[in-house]
Design goal:
By secondary structure, the protein is mainly alpha-helical. It contains six helices and no strands. The protein starts with a helix and ends with a helix.
Length: about 190
């Protein structure tokens, strides 16, 4: 596989991570370097590990995973997006310190899995095509981390300037990504 093809795959896989990073950082309004690092690192790590996992599973599990991966991603993104919308309406800025940070704990894990499930399928296809996964996984992880960082900084800028409106839009973006993933798979049934 040539580098331009691999780069196209990496950027394509990272688009969900970019959009989720924007939506997540809009909710936070202002992000710290630690939050940017956490989300970028985890999104990059999961985007790198999922193709390896998919490649390891090989064609044996491809049919089983394909049946429900879109439902998992949809559920996770709708949950996190709905939570962001709820929190936008649950109180003023005085409650912001009490709100959960989506770059920590279970929210971070859920977002990392939801944005990287499609990379699992790419790993399965690499196994079926006989492509070694190690170099592509590194490139995919690096691109995902870099685009997540860009998304976090841009989303934070939006959140600081437009407040609660952007929080709601950020939550709706997460839900829309989940619906898009689900619709893309259902339309092929």
């Amino acid at each position: 596989m040539d580098f331009l093809t691999l780069l196209g795959i990496a950027v394509g896989l990272s688009m969900d991570a970019l959009a989720v990073a924007i939506g997540t950082s809009v909710v936070l309004r202002g992000v710290t370097p630690r939050q940017v690092f956490r989300l970028s690192f985890h999104f990059g790590l999961f985007q790198a590990l999922m193709p390896i996992l998919g490649w390891a599973l090989g064609s044996l599990a491809a049919d089983h995973i394909r049946d429900y991966d879109h439902w998992v991603a949809f559920g996770l993104l709708v949950f996190v997006g709905g939570k962001a919308i709820y929190e936008a309406f649950s109180g003023g800025d005085e409650n912001r310190a009490e709100r959960r940070d989506p770059t920590r704990g279970w929210s971070l894990l859920l977002l990392s899995v939801a944005t990287s499930i499609d990379a699992l399928a790419v790993g399965l296809s690499f196994a079926m095509l006989g492509i070694t996964v190690w170099y592509p996984a590194i490139v995919i992880g690096f691109i995902a981390a870099a685009l997540t960082m860009v998304g976090m900084l841009f989303g934070s800028w939006l959140g600081q300037r437009f407040g609660k409106v952007m929080e709601v839009i950020g939550g709706l973006v997460l839900i829309a990504i989940g619906v898009k993933i689900l619709a893309g798979h259902i339309s092929f049934l």
